[in-house]
Amino acid sequence: MRCVQCGSQKDKVLDSRSSKDGAAIRRRRECLKCAYRYTTYEQIERTDLRVVKRNGAREALNREKLMGGLVKACEKRPVSMDRLDRAVEEILTELHKDHLIEVPSATIGGKVMDKLHHIDPVAYVRYVSVYRQFENVNEFIQEIQALSHRAARDPFQRRLFKD
Ligand SMILES: [Zn+2]
Are residues 75 and 134 in the same domain? Predict the structure, then answer.
């Protein structure tokens, strides 16, 4: 570590303890040149997971977006941010354990439902209703696209779609 005070890269660790239920190690360090004290956090770096959406599009798995969905579902409910933060951490850990590169969005939705089910019944129902609605709209669009695609090749159906 480069000391922010003097730029020296020589330091010693004064204290080392795990934080955030073992997810990170907090180290108290002291610069050997100027004695400036600072703290560093060490945590496991996760590789980037890609989310495969229903329409086949890919996007980066975004922690803030995941947290945002949970926060929204728990609006005005007696649920602490700390609890939601832990739930997000658990979901991410599970996702990274079971998937190496890509994960279907439906899998993530299922895990969120599972957590909310334990956290708050109202939040759970809210999330499920929004989620299901969204899924249905997608299914609807996909169905229409599939139909019109087929119609383009089938003269009889093409006539049906024109009228
Ligand atoms: Zn220093």
Answer: yes
- Reported pTM: 0.57
**Residue 1 C-alpha to ligand 1 middle, in angstroms?**
10
Looking at the structure, tell me whether residues 97 and 134 fall in a common domain.
yes
Judgement on whether residues 134 and 86 belong to the same structural domain of the protein: yes
Q: Ligand 1 centroid to 27 CA: how many Å?
A: 16
Point out the least confidently predicted range of 20-29, 43-52, 139-148.
Answer: 139-148
What's the structural domain count of the chain? 2
Give residues whose Cβ lies within 5 Å of ion ligand 1.
3, 5-6, 8, 31, 33-34, 36
127-137 confidence digits (pLDDT tens)? 888 777 655 55
* 130 C-alpha to ligand 1 centroid (Å): 53
Does residue 112 sit in the same domain as residue 141? yes
Q: What is the 3-state secondary structure (H, E, C) of the chain?
A: CCCCCCCCCCEEEEEEEEEHHHCEEEEEEEECCCCCEEEEEEECCCCCCEEECCCCCEEECCHHHHHHHHHHHCCCCCCCHHHHHHHHHHHHHHHHHHCCCEEEHHHHHHHHHHHHHHHCHHHHHHHHHHHHHHHHHHHHHHHHHHHHHHHHHCHHHHHHHHC
